[in-house]
Write a structure and sequence with these properties.
It is built from ten helices and no strands. It is mainly alpha-helical. The longest helix has 38 residues.
Length: 247
């Protein structure tokens, strides 16, 4: 009860500070509207906000799941294959060093203004943390445990499934928690560059029409969406109960 009360008090104080601090400091509404105006604008455009939020959620989930699948496969290949470590890993590292927003227009050129380009942008943002987390989890396994499994006569598959996968899961979960907000960012960036729907497009539309309150409402919707997705990952991560424990 105390933990919930602390959260309620904190966000209640934040809302009051936003609502009355704007008027007290004399901030113009086109720069920072009060929270009540943002909520009213969001409610008036609720159908558009819900529709665009659903589009953004679809882009995030498809791109994120693709990033998880590709990142896990590549992380495993890099760990078990010296050839992949020498060739693909430096290429992926170099790709990560590039500013992602600079590559977003290229996604539009390659995949067009539709759904595919947003998935590509989402994948691009979320992919590398998954690779690094998978690789780090697999590389962090103690050598004596591998030797113990070999001494017991375990096959390579049994060693991978019963040792490597459980040992790598904590690091993998941490990578997932980093990649999920980045997936949301990737989808929004893709919608900024070129889109006719989605919360990123709604922000662009509100900015073009000088509707700052609607723009903040869209930003608030993005924040709620990202927080909800992160909370789901946090709940799932509790199933990996051995996170933070040493053997």
């Amino acid at each position: 009860m105390k933990r919930w009360l602390e959260v309620i008090v904190f966000w209640g104080a934040f809302a009051l500070l936003w609502e009355y601090g704007v008027a007290a400091l004399g901030v113009r509404r086109y720069l920072l509207p009060p929270l009540s105006a943002v909520l009213v604008a969001g409610w008036d455009a609720r159908e558009m906000v819900v529709t665009d939020a659903w589009v953004t959620l679809s882009e995030v989930m498809v791109g994120f799941l693709a990033a998880v699948a590709g990142g896990v496969v590549l992380g495993i290949l890099i760990h078990f294959s010296d050839f992949t470590r020498r060739t693909l890993y430096p290429f992926i590292a170099a790709l990560q060093s590039m500013p992602k927003i600079a590559l977003a227009p290229l996604m539009i050129v390659w995949f067009g203004y539709g759904f595919a380009s947003k998935i590509a942008a989402t994948f691009l943002f979320a992919f590398f943390p998954i690779v690094i987390a998978t690789l780090g989890g697999l590389s962090g396994i103690a050598a004596n445990l591998d030797e113990h499994f070999r001494a017991l006569g375990a096959s390579k598959w049994d060693t991978f499934w019963r040792l490597h996968v459980p040992a790598a899961l904590p690091s993998f979960i941490d990578g997932i928690k980093i990649a999920m907000p980045l997936a949301v960012v990737g989808a929004i960036v893709g919608e900024f560059i070129g889109s006719e729907e989605g919360l990123g497009h709604l922000i662009t539309l509100a900015t073009a029409n000088a509707k700052t309150d609607l723009m903040f409402a869209a930003i608030l919707a993005i924040t709620v969406l990202a927080t909800f997705l992160y909370w789901i990952v946090e709940v799932v991560s509790r199933l990996v109960w051995w996170r933070g424990k040493t053997v």
